[in-house]
Amino acid sequence: MTRRFRLTAVLAGWVLLVATAAADQKVTFATFNCEFLTRPKVHMKFGERFNLARDRKNVWNQPGYRDKKFHEAAEAVARFIVKIDADVIGLEEVGDERDVGELHEAVRAAGLDYPYWVAGKSLDPVTHQNVALFSRYKLSELLSPIPGLEAYDTELDDPDAERWTELTKGLRVAVHGPGQTFYVYVLHLKSERGGHESDARRIAQASIVRRNYLPLLAAGKNVIVMGDLNDGRNQPAIRRIRGRDDIQPDLIQTGRADYFDFDKLDTRWTYEYMGVRGQIDHILLSTSFKHICKRIHARTMEQHDPRVSDHRPFIVDLNLRAAAPGAARPAARPPVIHAAHPAGKH
After folding, report:
1. Cα separation of 218 and 215, whole Å?
2. What are the beta bridge partners of residue 135?
3. What contacts 51, CB < 8 A, 6 or more positions away?
């Protein structure tokens, strides 16, 4: 082999390597419950009860005290968000736009700059909890609250025990990532506290989500549903959101063992209650991701600071296939219908 030929081969290899690196794009999505990072209820992060006793109210109502403690909590949460280092992160149990803006600034001060962020519009006047999303990619088409009403039964044996629910904490936004647009839902569904009625209401809220994103699936869009869904991997609300109980396309459950490293299967939990660990924070993907991704990899991250949260984040790394900006999977060629020749004519 001549020197010139060897040099040409090496250069060709480098060009191929650079082209491959440029073509392969990793995008990381995460969801994280910030546990009462809301100004009206931030006292719960410091060991207080949901409703403060009179003497504790006197402390927390001192001028500037609540703002100071909120800033302290926001800084702790921000430092952990920097450790997660996702390209797009959905946040639950955050406050209004002012609170989310202060958290966003704390994240930037801690060393991670998200150029784009949105806060939802909460319909929950009791907890004052909200959802939000921080992104390295441009955002558009914000929808919050997610519209819809759904009925549910508070008593299984009483046909008149029917109530209606909205999706009180949720948003949808278009994320314009590298070569693809993702329609991302950030949700916080009804908690399990309250027994059957809470379970029924959570399933009803899941129906609202499913009904909202089905037109996007029909249009071939990339859909991501993430958040604190307050149900386990194969429990009713998750099955309803995924579409396991209807005939439309299902969403991918990234919490399945298929998407975790084999030696990390025991880390597939995001919340511990009375010693029982389970995954109630989820990232669900439309099946379009099977075509636009070379690999889908899920993981969690340890978190031990009670000022930050009682949850762990759930994270999904997507290795996107090479695609031109805005490219979608080619549609299948429709069958050709041939017209038969009229009798006697050729």
Report:
1. 5
2. 88, 116
3. none
**3-state class (DSSP) for residue 157:** coil
Are 37 and 332 in contact by the 8 Å Cβ rule? The answer is: no
Q: What is the pLDDT of residues 10-69, one digit of tens each?
A: 444 444 444 444 457 999 999 999 999 999 999 999 999 999 999 999 999 999 999 999
Q: Let me know how long the chain is.
A: 346
Q: Which 3 state secondary structure label does DSSP give 328?
A: coil
The pLDDT of 150-167, averaged and rounded, is 90
CA atoms within 13 A on the CB side of 37: 33
* Whether the predicted pLDDT of 71 surpasses 70: yes
Tell whether the model's pLDDT for residue 268 goes beyond 70: yes
Provide the token pair at 53. 């006793």
Alpha helix segments (H runs only) across the chain: 3-23, 54-60, 65-84, 97-109, 196-218, 236-242, 289-292
Pull the structure tokens for residue 19: 């082209």
Buried b (16+ CB within 10 A) or exposed e, 45-76: beebeeebeeeeeeeeeeeeebeebbbebbbb
Instruction: Convert the pLDDT of each residue in 289-301 to its tens digit.
Output: 999 999 999 999 9
41/52 Cα distance (integer angstroms): 9
Q: Which domains does the chain have, with CATH numbers?
A: 36-320 (3.60.10.10)
